[in-house]
Amino acid sequence: MLRQRLIVALILLPLGMLAIFLGGWYFTALIAVFLGLAAWEYAHLFRAGGWQPATLLVVGGVLLLLLGRAVNGFDSAPWLLSLLTLLSMTWHLVAYERGRDQSATDLAITLGGILYIGWIGGYFVSLRSLPDGQWWVLIALPAVWLADSGAYFIGRAFGRHKLSPRLSPKKTWEGYLGGIAAGVVLTALFAALWQQLAGPDVGITPLRGALMGLVMGLFPTLGDLGESMIKRQVGMKDSSSLLPGHGGFFDRIDSWLWAAVLGYYLITWLWL
């Protein structure tokens, strides 16, 4: 298992770094692969639980929203979201007429996947599109991993009180709070390193890194717990086995979805 995790990480890490620094359509293409496969896994999870979301609309809607974000920013959102909502309703109305009695629930699941993975996932592109976006991506996303790592080791050593017994019995309040503290300190150090590499004209500072670490320690855990809720409800351990040793793509981006949108607004509201 550890060997598989390392092999996958050694393949994806350089690809990710290259796409982040190249930006543009290279970065968008990588995000499209991750979000498209995560959307397929999302639909697959619910289908395993007996529901019937429209897999084609979930995957297609996610990719369409991502494309719209890459081409027009937020300008195309009103008509794209309207179109996808009407198409989803039509799809499930037809399914109901053909005998699917749970079509209303299926509709909610379809729209939920499009919005959560497509709309929120589009903030990866929005974050990278900011001035000096490559550096902000390299602060916001690693901050989640740093906080998670701190939470794991501190929780393993000192964890006593369960954070969410039903969703994630191994998570503890001690680990969660320790992860926040670790995220603040380590992300500040990361920011100091990137500041040296990027130069003085880039607006990344250790203080801003510390605040980013605080936000990423506090909130993206909810993304992890949210996916755990889906998997437990349908009785699945991982979203898929597409990434050996890591589970699936949805498993990898569950917290990063939160990081992308939170990082984008933290940066744009406070520092740009």
Short description:
It is built from eleven helices and two strands; from the N terminus they run H-H-H-H-H-H-H-E-E-H-H-H-H.
Topology:
Elements: H1 2-22, H2 24-48, H3 55-72, H4 77-97, H5 103-119, H6 123-128, H7 133-158, E1 162-164, E2 168-172, H8 173-198, H9 206-218, H10 221-234, H11 249-270
Antiparallel strand pairs: 1-2
Helix pairs in contact: 1-2, 2-3, 2-5, 2-11, 3-4, 3-5, 4-5, 7-8, 7-9, 7-11, 8-9, 10-11
Strand content: under 5%
What count of structural domains? 2
Strand order of the largest sheet: 1-2
The value of Rg in angstroms is 19 Å
Biggest β-sheet description: 2 strands, antiparallel
Sequence of secondary-structure elements:
HHHHHHHEEHHHH
Query: What's the number of extended β-strand segments?
Result: 2
Mean of all residue-level pLDDT scores: 95
Q: State the secondary-structure class.
A: mainly alpha
Q: Which parts are unreliable, with pLDDT below 50 for 5 consecutive residues or more?
A: none
Helix content: over 70%
The separation of the N and C termini measures 43 Å
Question: Count of helical segments?
Answer: 11
Shape: globular
